[in-house]
Amino acid sequence: MATLGLIEYEAASPEVRAVYDDIMTVRKTDAVNNFWKALAHDPVTLRRTWHSIKEIMAPGALDPLTKEMLYVAVSVTNQCGYCIASHTAAARKAGMTDAMFAELMAVVGMANETNRLASGYQVEIDEQFLPGKKR
Amino acid sequence: MATLGLIEYEAASPEVRAVYDDIMTVRKTDAVNNFWKALAHDPVTLRRTWHSIKEIMAPGALDPLTKEMLYVAVSVTNQCGYCIASHTAAARKAGMTDAMFAELMAVVGMANETNRLASGYQVEIDEQFLPGKKR
Amino acid sequence: MATLGLIEYEAASPEVRAVYDDIMTVRKTDAVNNFWKALAHDPVTLRRTWHSIKEIMAPGALDPLTKEMLYVAVSVTNQCGYCIASHTAAARKAGMTDAMFAELMAVVGMANETNRLASGYQVEIDEQFLPGKKR
Amino acid sequence: MATLGLIEYEAASPEVRAVYDDIMTVRKTDAVNNFWKALAHDPVTLRRTWHSIKEIMAPGALDPLTKEMLYVAVSVTNQCGYCIASHTAAARKAGMTDAMFAELMAVVGMANETNRLASGYQVEIDEQFLPGKKR
Amino acid sequence: MATLGLIEYEAASPEVRAVYDDIMTVRKTDAVNNFWKALAHDPVTLRRTWHSIKEIMAPGALDPLTKEMLYVAVSVTNQCGYCIASHTAAARKAGMTDAMFAELMAVVGMANETNRLASGYQVEIDEQFLPGKKR
Amino acid sequence: MATLGLIEYEAASPEVRAVYDDIMTVRKTDAVNNFWKALAHDPVTLRRTWHSIKEIMAPGALDPLTKEMLYVAVSVTNQCGYCIASHTAAARKAGMTDAMFAELMAVVGMANETNRLASGYQVEIDEQFLPGKKR
Predict the structure, then answer these.
(1) ipTM for the complex?
(2) CATH classification of D61-135 is 1.20.1290.10, yes or no?
(3) Which residue of B has its CA nearest to D81?
(4) Homologous superfamily (CATH) for E1-58
(5) What percent of chain B has pLDDT over 90?
(6) Which CATH superfamily is domain C61-124 in?
(7) Would B37 disulfide with which of A53, A102, B6, F47, CB 3.0-4.6 Å?
(8) By the CB < 8 Å criterion, does B79 face chain D?
(9) What is the pTM of this model?
(10) How far is D39 from chain A (nearest CA, A)?
């Protein structure tokens, strides 16, 4: 069980229910996942985190599928089991095919490899890549 | 300077030059960046790494721009200075606008935050997210 | 089971028992947790690690509760399941309330987010933050 | 220079200036540090991040100094140079002495060590540390 | 179950079987472990990853046991449960004794500690350690 | 400059000088590197860290060169600039050739890649790799 347990809808305060309702509306689902039920012990963090995610994951210059795949990339790099499971599911729901998942994994794996080759060889940044040089 | 120094084209063996030539052809550029010049001290790793990246980053189920942004997401999560600089430059070259960069950063930041909230609250994975449950 | 298994008190050598006894005395408990029983296969590391922790976690300029919360912050950032569970329990025993836990998580989450925003935007360190400038 | 450069107060839009003004008021300072000037290219993220930090870092169940030290602990674990420099400075301003800094570092170092010993020895979580067992 | 499930030998395509056969031949075993069965959903990544590992882990300037221990060191640092279990088993098969495992863990733990002490104290690199200085 | 500055031999207390002397004796060198001079502001941590490293890095079941290469593997994975520079230098001093360094980097890069493939594909641990199964 989660550290402080999970707060189900029935046992939730009106403040928490309002967030749960908004999550279900925005995500077009009739269930709230465990992450939010665990966070509900801290209604301030629950509200802030949900509002931030709602704002960040909305369609914008990047589409929702791309954003979910970026979320998976970070979660895999950090080895967060819960996040890998939940955001892989979310990315699939947003349209990620098996072929897209496979390429996503290949890029994430490769990036983690070359990140270490670059640091291990102590490679200095090329002039052309310095931010100040190109603006 | 890099651990073993950088090998410039003029000083490179034919084996290394062949990789440099392929990099410049595939990337439509007349320069090879420091990462490859540092790796060139190990021609086997140079060749394998380049061939892997060429295969992985080619257009497929995901487009090159999405792949470069995934690369940036991983590099930022890992705090690899060289990789952040070089792949941010590569993503821009592939079409990333300032607005896309800003949203990319927002997603990466948020994912790193909720990765820790999920683990810190010791949230157990929802039944619905377990891979075996949905196939 | 742990890689090398766990060594229970009854099966422990006098050298290992001496460390177990000291752990139980210092922590005012009649049980030794699995971490130490797993380390006991290497009595040298067992002894050194226990003596280091005993020295580091003792009251000093920082109180024991603050130290346990710092331990949780690191463990959550590193995604170490065992350490999150054991040090969250230790922090509670040292007096961490649910409200303190919630704020601890909020800070850890936020720090992980802004760590990536700072690196991703490649922000240079302000003059005023350079150590040499203020001493 | 930062990826998108820094936006100084004089060149900032009214929306960005409002955030800068609030930062200076809350922090009782007449300067805004580079992190915010870099984020200002994305006024939405600037505003959200500042409001989140203001809410999270305010005095509550934990005092501001403890929160700043937790921030340093995470930043050091993640190896974020900018964040280590800026939050070490903030923690000092909030009252962290050299002795407190030294103990903070000792705990962070030790936690990073034992996180790996626990995972490397594949230690299973003790019954008593399972969250569900104690509530 | 793995995200896309596992592909057993009987259900595998000739392309995938060829990789499985090579794995069993090179490793002198009659079983393929789950990692490869999960990757088999992406035959291109399966083949590339196996060929890279085969090339990298072959005896060279470093012997296979040293290479397996390096693999464990990285996996423990990254907190990858699957990798810790599988590469610890592989290292044992390559000759790692309990005493070697214990020293490996001690070094990995210590390195993770001093990595943070060095960064947390913001120690500047000694002249003598700069790569350019010694070549 | 380091957070608290560096303490040179001439300015050091007898307690700190004793550690410096032991470092120079054990390492057969007439200089103490910056890491220790930065830690010297906390003589307790200086002493404990040095004694731990001296014990851990001494020849045992693993030789000093293997231990230094493990140190580099961890430091590269963690992206610790100071540690990569100093332990690469130490490994060279202990006998690491360019060819060994190249293979070390290749293994570290590959391990970081497959760590993410294993986690990203959510591969469950094979029965045969479970520690309890084989002892």
Answers:
(1) 0.96
(2) yes
(3) B79
(4) AhpD-like (1.20.1290.10)
(5) 95
(6) AhpD-like (1.20.1290.10)
(7) B6
(8) yes
(9) 0.97
(10) 15
